[in-house]
Amino acid sequence: MGPNVTATTEPLAGQSATVVGAGFGGLATACYLADAGADVTVLERHDRPGGHANRIEDGGFTFDTGPSWYLMPDVFERFFGHFDRDPGDYYDLVRLDPHYRVLWKGGADGEIADSVDMRPDMDHNRRVFRSYEAGADDALDEYLAEAEHTYEVGMERFVYEDRQRLRDFLDPEVVRSARGLTFLGSMQDHVADYFEHPKLRQLMQYTLVFLGGSPYNTPALYNLMSHVDFELGVYYPDGGVYSVVEGMVELAEELGVEIRTGLEVTGLAGEPDGVAVTTADGTAATDLAVANANLAHVDRDLLPDGTRETRRGYWENRTYAPSAYMLYLGVEGDVSPLEHHTLVLPEDWEPHFRSIFEEPRWPTDPAYYVNVPSVTDDSVAPDGHHAVVVLVPIAPGLDDDEPAREQFREQVLSDLARHAGVDLRDRIVVEHEACVSEFARRYDDPEGTALGLAHTLRQTGPLRPGHRSSAVDGLYYTGSFTTPGIGVPMCLISGQHAADAVVDDM
Known about the structure:
Structural class: alpha/beta
CATH class of the largest domain: Alpha Beta
Shape: globular
């Protein structure tokens, strides 16, 4: 619970608030603002809430279009707990076992070279690590102890508390609690201090894709993700992650929030008594506005001419998280050995990351993720079928014209048949696709990034955009482009930070 937005006071009573965008950040902000007494309206350009976290329903299949991993359950419990609710009031969770499967390439055609399952059973995981490298089980314990400490200190001091200025980090109490944390250096170098085997290093670093980074450009501070992965668990909300969106919509409406869909905001401007919000219905005044639309889009397209949040060229010089080539496939028959979450990795994944961040191009030997929620939830596919989502991280800004996409589709499905031993090509009964162009067109994401600003050292903490507009009084920001960053849990916390900023300023 933030220092200002509390369940027992209504500091925003009588204030009108408009939230632009009904993604996780926007819905969270709306809930906090309504709980603080504001009269809140959420405007969503698409036909239903969720933003990137949406749903495709076709032919009896149900696909999450965006996030599909439910991590950091403590953050969801904290969010709903603020309103004296529990996640279980809105959706049911299943802890996955295995948490995920990793298939490594390199075998003969149609054969898996190597595979491991990571499970809730830590003794099993220790045995897996020891099987690759003598003493790696003890190294895993040491690494996870450090990751747990980083998580606890990092969340309490640098995530739940919104420290948007460098001088905020000089607080003596913060300095004391941060001793021993590794802020500098890359995750690649940090993990190399513990493990020699390249496959073990990959197991400790694959979660960086959730942060929109790579082992080579993400600060070592994010070793905390291993605590999230191994010790907090991987869960699945029945019906998919969109069930969480539906739960948050239900909560928001219980708190008095009005959600209007199919209404695009085309302008935001300051006025003497608040903010003018322009839509197809005209221009309406609100005491305050919070944009969950990405900050780059607001800065370039929604603010009045001559009004900018950033210096010219700022957005062109950011490091964006990957875009994605995504296939949503309704497949007939068995899809073994794919699990609910499966990672298909080359033993050397550096060329793939280089093709994202250094030399943008379509990867020749891709690392990718396959989500098969129907392994756990038979409601998302007809009997005898599976819902399969393939996600390949790719460089933002790539030219994804039809020939390029068709060629890459064949490459990925062939790769899956060759290295994972499952050929889907002749069994696909439903198919949808998304890539750079869809993220750019549907969400106005710069360069078609699928996630936002990458968590590089220069785009972390106070070096990331904050929640207050410097251009328009009464305008605020929330979501993955702001602090604390990328991912559903971070967007929930971003919503609290934005609401706290509003209350502070009021």
